[in-house]
Amino acid sequence: MSTRHEVIVIGAGISGIAAAIKLRESGVNDVVILEKAETYGGTWRANTYPGCACDVPSNLYSFSFAPNSDWSRVYGNQPEILAYIDGVARDHGLEGITRFGVEVQGAAWDESTQQWQLETSDGAMTARFLVAAAGPWNEPKIPDVPGLADFPGEVWHSARWNHDFDLDGKRVAVVGTGASAVQFVPQIQQQVEQLHLFQRTAHWVLPKVDHHVPDAEKWVKRNIPLFERTLGRVEYAAMEAVGVAFHHPKPLMHGLQKVGQAYLRAAVRDKELRAKLTPDYLLGCKRILFSNNYLQSLTKANVEVHATGVDRVEGSTVVGSDGTRAEVDAIILGTGFHILDLPVAEFVRGADGRTMAEHWAGSPEAYQGTVVAGFPNAFIVLGPSLGTGHGSAFAVAEAQVAMIVDAITTTRTKGWSSIDVRPDAQSAYVDDVQAALVGTAYSGATCHSYFIDANGRNSFSWPWSTSEFARRISPFRPADFEIAQPSVVEPVETEVTA
């Protein structure tokens, strides 16, 4: 297979698939996807834990160019979402341009050739344009707990679920109470003899308006497009209403928090347990969780909630920071991902030879969340400052891909050799984002979430509505870029393909 390509896309998840499809539709045919796993799906391929599902309605959690009327539930589950993503990739002919089982180990910009030089598990490769689409939910975060490596039982992260281990009748410790734990804890609670939940911080949990979609509704959605569009608009409006609350926490988020308080009171009657599960920060400061059975599962006789972090592991015993102890047969880590310290940033080197991580120095930033100064002809999908507490990753990825496609096709047709965002344009954008985050629920002072980077700055959250993605992110503005001329390649006429 060829080792030289015009565009190399890293990752075959939602964003990588969108980038490859739209680039090929625009006439950029020499595109290859490198995927370290053996199939499509990204985070939906990796996360197979019991109860894995989406927190965004299925009608919104899909590609705009590939609607699906056959979702079985209002909120899709992991197998169904994975099948959808895989089907879209194959329906658009991406099998022929995807190299599975190939991991990118390094990428460096070569100024002399105006190319990206890649080192992969399958040898060296070269690309004119690089699209990093590995995403922020790619690499599990394993806590540095003394004694964990010597635990004699089984240990695994929720994103690397051990399906070979029989949980029936076992004593299990769950470390972490984020979005994944909220989904798998109710499932395994029914199997295990004893479940010890180590909760460093309580989370707000809201009820999930979910139900099975009857066949009659599916038929209507397939045959009456107006119904499906109207339903989508209603669901979008509901999600945007939550977004308004994020941006105007007083009084809106305080009102939504009262819903969470009432739900907690109804689900947990025991006052002592309810006190453990009551957060001490404003709703929205951390990711909002949705579940109809998580709080209820914690009231069962075989569950003990330890309102503390884990201090150490001694043999088969997990010891909490408050001294509580639990002897267990297995430890499941629901400890999240390297969200802001993106692994891809550690091996991509820019024009000055430094990695993206070195440029960021703990505070990721990118112009329009997509391009980083000093990294010519390179793009990140689902990059810094694009996370929302209420929107769909599909909408974010498609807005970014629109800009990426525009940038690449313009560079080709103009005959430019490379484009590199101006540092002042990047700084102005980042300053605009940070100013807009002031006063939002995302930047609450009473909690520390994964929104906040190593330097104490919110480098994750998007401070505007999801409708602003298309207006702010999608346009390619050449005036904000340094353009290398004369070109080292001949101008290319773009041909749109079906």
From TrEMBL:
Pfam families: Pyr_redox_3. SUPFAM superfamilies: FAD/NAD(P)-binding domain (SSF51905). Transmembrane segments: none annotated. PANTHER family: FAD_NAD(P)-BINDING DOMAIN-CONTAINING PROTEIN-RELATED, L-ORNITHINE N(5)-MONOOXYGENASE-RELATED. This is NAD(P)/FAD-dependent oxidoreductase. It comes from Nocardioides humilatus.
